[in-house]
């Protein structure tokens, strides 16, 4: 009996350690999955803010067609790396394209945040974007990098 007690104590603490490791991974943002989810939420939020500021900047320029519009973001907000804002002519005004590099899960988060807004696309290949809500493929400017999230609206300044 005395030889059994150390084994029971050892197994008890091994179980306790395993439970602690399990519960530490259930905290929001913990582990690899939590890190990916946090990155998706952050990228979606920055894409939404950048797109809104891009449309505002394009509206202020009037009918100007530009491949590189300077976007002014709110104080404390940093533009996503390699993000872009551009305009092209459209039959009923100006196409405004705001694009940011995507991360896994960001497209779904944007779709959820915007209640399926039809202006959001995923650029799957050069010159081709898929609407996040409808799945329909459209031709877009070939200067928008593949793999980016795209907010495409038509304005009439």
- What is the distance, rounded to the nearest whole angstrom, between the alpha carbons of the first and last residues? 87 Å
Low-confidence stretches: none
Integer average pLDDT: 88
How much β-strand is present in the residues? 15-25%
The best one-word shape is elongated
What gyration radius follows from the Cα positions, in whole Å?
A: 23 Å
Question: Can you summarize the main beta sheet?
Answer: 6 strands, antiparallel
Helix/strand-derived class?
alpha+beta
Tally the beta strands.
Answer: 6
Number of helices, where a helix is a run of at least 4 consecutive DSSP H or I residues: 3
Order of helices and strands: HHEEHEEEE
In the sheet with the most strands, the strands line up as 1-2-6-3-4-5
Helix share bin: 25-40%
